Amino acid sequence: MSQENPPAVQKEEPPTPLETELGNAPGVGLTLEQIRSVVSKAHDVMLPKDDATLMIATILNAYLTEVDRLQARHEKGLTRLMAEKTDEYVSGVQAAVNQLSASLSSASVEGIRKVFDDHSATLKTFRSNVYLAAVIVGMSALLNVAVFILKAVH
Hints:
Elements: H1 17-22, H2 32-43, H3 54-153
């Protein structure tokens, strides 16, 4: 039987003064370890933890942090401006809708009154025509009865 030795556990090195100063994730950019990994993959060179090249990353991360703060400030300002302009636009549209509703309501009422007046006039004409027709039918019936009576007498 062979005994296998367990794989050696890599001990983590203590953080460098630069890493201690910046913390785990400086700013909004990459951590120093991520930068070292990217450089290693792209150039097959492993940067030491205290390499001066990492200062550029620190400077750029500080710049990104400031850009992020500035962008957040601009977003708040733009949101406030858009809210004000939207409120003005909505109130203008509401005033136009109210004015249009008032004019349409009065126009609708006038239109309905005109339709009812026209309908009333038509009904009056129809009523007088029906009355005239009833009179003619009644006179015709009386004339027919008179003719039958006169024929019966002769």
